[in-house]
Amino acid sequence: MAHRIVTLPGDGIGPEILAPALEVLRAVGEFHFESHPFGGASIDLHGTALTDETLAACRQADAVLLAAVGGPKWDTTDPAAPRPEQGLLGLRKGLGLYANLRPVKPLPALYEASPLRRERIEGTDLLVVRELTGGIYFGEKTRTEDFASDVCAYSREEIERIARTAFRAARAKVSSVDKANVLETSRLWREVVIEVHAREFPQIELEHVLVDNAAMQLVSAPSAFEVILTENMFGDILSDEAAMITGSIGMLPSASLGAPPATTPSPDVDGVKGGVCGGMFEPVHGSAPDIAGRGIANPLAMFLSAALMLRHGLALESEATAVESAVQRALDGGLRTPDLGGEAGTEEATRAVLAEL
User: Fold this and answer.
1) Candidates 93, 105, 150, 240; catalytic one
2) Is 111 an active-site residue?
3) Are the CB atoms for 176 and 234 separated by under 8 Å?
4) Which DSSP category does 273 fall into?
5) What are the start and end residues of each CATH 3.40.718.10 domain in the chain?
6) In the CATH scheme, what is the homologous superfamily, with its name and number, of domain 115-246?
7) N or C: which terminus of the chain has fewer CB atoms within 10 Å of its end residue's CB?
8) 240 included as an active-site residue
């Protein structure tokens, strides 16, 4: 039975890296792919970054694979104008995706590609667990000609569920990142995390790190972290910073997960599996409009995002491992895209990984 995957090519290099990712997926399993416009592409077609039709399709899919959104074409300071990023926020809310997982594990083959010295990044294997549907990005917003505000708000329930996600992912240690010396939301965050830890996960070590200190430690001693638990905006910033440990933001995948929507799975039709969405999976990098159409985009983060989809969205562990191992072997064999200091284009990188599969 084929799994139903909604694909969102999006903007910029998005379509260029999504197409080879589907080739990689077809090499390890049987899938039914259904493409929908999203982000800036959807704004051009429909006037909105996320249509009701696309959201409904995502809810009925087994998983969503997103490439990239955004670009200067849609940049504006007009609060009434549609923006591609509004589609991301709408999908997260609409699918109940409250937990964003961003693994950061530099591969030995790429140690020299990192701007940090080898001895600083050796042994780093951390996971950023970012709360995805609360905080300042979703708070009430006001705007006049001379004043603007963005409300940062969190409830106990929102903090409890993301804390559980982090503790369940940890083997030994969770570093909860906040700004409790200044922000009331962070003080509530710290109190609730302490309660969840004491009540449900006392066997896991818990430490509290102020966000500015965490930013410093990520570049001075990243291997000291195992699981970083943090709120929406802090997680957005810290995970992009952590991406450079791997050598390039073009190497970092992500998974956005949540409780299944309260809908009934659609019936299986013509050998295609029906289901409710098991998550959205996307590379951390942006749409890179400056290199779009040149055939030089690094597709590896897209491949690794597909692997996270196989593991977390579809429970296909051996297939996920096969994709990740193929990427690592291709890099061990010398594959380097321009962002990694080499000359391999998108097509060459794809062939190298497919050869390892």
Assistant:
1) 240
2) no
3) no
4) E
5) 1-97+254-357, 115-246
6) Isopropylmalate Dehydrogenase (3.40.718.10)
7) N
8) yes
Catalytic residue among 11, 62, 98, 179: 179
Question: Over the stretch 241-262, which tens digit does the pLDDT of each residue have?
Answer: 988 888 777 788 999 998 754 4
User: Residues 344-354, buried b or exposed e (16+ Cβ, 10 A)?
Assistant: bbbeebbebbb
Among residues 66, 352, 108, which one has the least CA distance to residue 246? Answer: 108
Q: What is the pTM of this model?
A: 0.87
At the topology level, CATH places domain 1-97+254-357 in Isopropylmalate Dehydrogenase (3.40.718)
Active-site residue 236, yes or no? yes
Q: Which of 212, 268, 290, 332 is catalytic?
A: 212
**C-alpha distance across the termini of the chain, in Å:** 22
Q: Which of 154, 236, 273, 339 is catalytic?
A: 236
pLDDT tens per residue, range 94-113: 999 999 999 999 888 888 88
Where are the alpha helices (H) located in the chain, listed in sequence order? 14-26, 40-46, 52-60, 85-95, 118-121, 156-169, 184-200, 211-220, 232-243, 300-308, 317-332, 346-356
CA dist 186 and 179 (Å) reads: 5
List 62, 137, 154, 178, catalytic entry: 137
